[in-house]
Amino acid sequence: VFDHVVRAPEDPILGVTVAYNKDQSPIKLNLGVGAYRTEEGKPLVLNVVRQAEQTLVNDKSRVKEYLPIVGLAEFNKQSAKLIFGSDSPAIQENRVTTVQCLSGTGSLRVGGEFLAWHYLERTIYIPVPTWGNHPKVFTLAGLSVKTYRYYDPATRGLDFQGMLEDLNSAPAGAIVLLHACAHNPTGVDPTLEQWEQIRQLIRLKGLLPFFDSAYQGFASGSLDSDAQSVRIFVADGGECLVAQSYAKNMGLYGERVGALSIVCKNADVAGRVESQLKLVIRPMYSNPPIHGASIVAMILRDRDMYNEWTIELKGMADRIISMRHQLFEALLARGTPGDWSHIIKQIGMFTFTGLNSEQVAFMTREYHIYMTSDGRISMAGLSSTTVPHLADAIHAAVTR
Ligand code: PMP
């Protein structure tokens, strides 16, 4: 009965790792997937996460009962504080509902489905380019996906005018997907002044902001700085949605821990919105997993653990920034043609190199370096030992 089923293409991002795994070369390098690696090229479990897990294991009173549909209450409370700030008026006024979801992706999907059911303007505007999963998640959630200009290849920076023009011509009420910080794949973020202009336009036009926060703390190393974009929108008293992921900033990738918050006009609306979120979640996966959320809740609640986390997080962010400088210097030293300053200007886990798909294919074929075909490299996958190899490959690709 399944004879007619055709083979689907590999996921463009996860497929990079599939190809990498098949390569037998000892010098192969995977710069495709956005997961942190140590200087030794190994995945990292944070010390504070190990410590929290140990405490959970030792606590024999802990059981494996189902969580409520909306997840672990303490996790939700702490997650809202983390993104909105501990003194956020919206939290104090009880007009935020936060539900635990399956990492960032699941939070986007639940938020998208809620909007498709209950929001009148079912069009979402996403930036060009954006994380490849965004259009698929929102289309399957039942929204119609349109785009706004974001990145200017000529300047390798933000196309701010283009962005404002496109948002200005969006229909009133349309949803706008915004990367809270460390835009993926470009590493290009608006400045705080630009965020303020974006906010004014969005509020003026009555658009609905939906933030994707997958890298809080990873951009600057500071959790508060990386939440500024979200907080200026919440401070004006208007509505917004936020999808949070703990994959990168706590290294909990496979634990699938995240949260969706919906900031409403008042507590009464927030309560009704939460009741409807339960109806979205229940037939999708009933209730979320308990382990990862328990780790996060413990770390966010305990002052010492929280401080330890911020130090480890800053360590990861700083290593990535150092890789940017090392790669930039290595290209300068080789006299590689072109301006490579965007490598040190861009923010977060990725550099949008500007290499085209042909140059990427060449680097994979000749240098066994794997990355997405749009020229995005994960800086977290680099180390001082592999930077020269990458610089050689880039130099060869642009001078051939
Ligand atoms: N949004 C963006 C922009 C991302 O880069 C990612 C991870 N690559 C996610 C959401 C979701 O990640 P996860 O579901 O693993 O939390």
Overview of the molecule:
GO terms for molecular function: L-aspartate:2-oxoglutarate aminotransferase activity; pyridoxal phosphate binding. Pfam families: Aminotran_1_2. This is Aspartate aminotransferase, cytoplasmic-like. The longest helix is centred in the last third of the chain and has 32 residues, at 303-334. This protein has helices spanning 14-22, 47-58, 73-84, 89-92, 103-118, 133-141, 160-168, 192-205, 228-235, 267-285, 291-301, 303-334, 342-345, 357-367, 387-399; strands at 29-30, 96-102, 123-128, 144-149, 151-152, 157-158, 175-179, 208-213, 240-245, 257-263, 350-352, 369-370, 376-378. The protein is built from 15 helices and 13 strands. The model has no long low-confidence stretch (mean pLDDT 96). The strands form four sheets. It has a seven-stranded mixed beta sheet, sandwiched between helices. A two-stranded parallel sheet has the order 1-12. With 400 residues, it is an alpha/beta fold. A hairpin with a 4-residue loop joins β5 and β6 (157-158). It folds into two domains: 14-44 and 318-399, Aspartate Aminotransferase, domain 1 (Alpha-Beta Complex); 73-301, Type I PLP-dependent aspartate aminotransferase-like (Major domain) (Aspartate Aminotransferase, domain 2). The structure holds 4'-deoxy-4'-aminopyridoxal-5'-phosphate. 4'-deoxy-4'-aminopyridoxal-5'-phosphate binds next to α5.
